[in-house]
Amino acid sequence: MLRNISLRHLRCFVAVADAGSFTVAASRLFLTQSSLTATIQQFEETIGVKLFDRSTRRVAMTNEAVRFKVEAEKILSHFDGALSDLQAFSQGRQGHIRIAAAASVIEHFLADAAHAFKQEYPDTTISLRDAGAELVETMVAGGDLDFAVTSRHRGHDDLVYTPLLEDRYGVVCDARHRYGASRKPLRWSDLDPADYVSFSSDTGIGAFLRENVQRQDMFSGVRDEISSTTSLHAVLRLGASYAIIPALAAGMGQFAPFVFREVIGPRLSREICLISRKLRALSPSSTRLLEFMRRAIDERPLPPGVSALPGKAQREKPAPAKGQRRRSSMATPA
């Protein structure tokens, strides 16, 4: 009967599917090969479906197994995540917090908040990552991160996005560049794609701009591209290029030598969100750290072009029309 199927069957199935070998999978699971083979056979007999085609050299999944593997991985991920949550709650004041954040959030708020938090809760350790927005969403959804503080990328069904900050976009460049030397209002139609350095599409900034800026000539074809604000600094100091970044990123110390000018006609902004898993409560330690960060946001002056948001949770909804997936502040062209 199906009630005899357990998580052990699913783990064995996924291990064999990933390894393509009973021998390798058995070694990874610390099982004997005969025990693993018996478990898979019992699984196949119970559900009435053949999962693997066995040969002398390779074990291949059947079509049914390929479709089922995605669901099996989701079940295991949710189960392991739930246990991780339970363990975090049981640890009370002790524990380990795994988070990711945009580099600008780390510099402006999170580093100081984490330091203050550690002064009060020294037994809690923190892993902090500065990763691409696409990877961050995947890691939070999979339970590899407790939460993240960054911009929304593609949106994920298993995630909740709670807005914290609104952050307007503008041009950043060396003062020697023509956009840095000019004083007249800067419009999207004024921007020359020839000396524009774009962010790659797997970053939050890159994905947002490609979807919301009505200037596809700035993203088409092969062009100069970077994947982080860290590498952008080295490019801009030469004085020949410009990039488009949010005001919060432009307020980082590394961009102090450069000029930041908001682009109008229309104005464009992103939201910095707390990204967490749906139906998964944050651990007490994570909640405390977030309180420290919210306090930092409330107490210190925000850079020009950045404003605090009330923080109403935004759960996933059916995909809207193209160009409206992310929140963009489009003011009347000035």
TrEMBL record:
GO terms, molecular function: DNA binding; DNA-binding transcription factor activity
PROSITE patterns documented for this protein: HTH_LYSR
One GO cellular component term noted in the UniProt record for this chain: cytosol
Superkingdom, taxonomy of origin: Bacteria
Domain (HTH lysR-type): residue spans on this chain: 5-62
Keyword terms, alphabetized: DNA-binding, Transcription, Transcription regulation
One Pfam family here: LysR_substrate
Ranges for region Disordered: 300-334
Family designation: Belongs to the LysR transcriptional regulatory family.
Protein name (Swiss-Prot/TrEMBL): LysR family transcriptional regulator
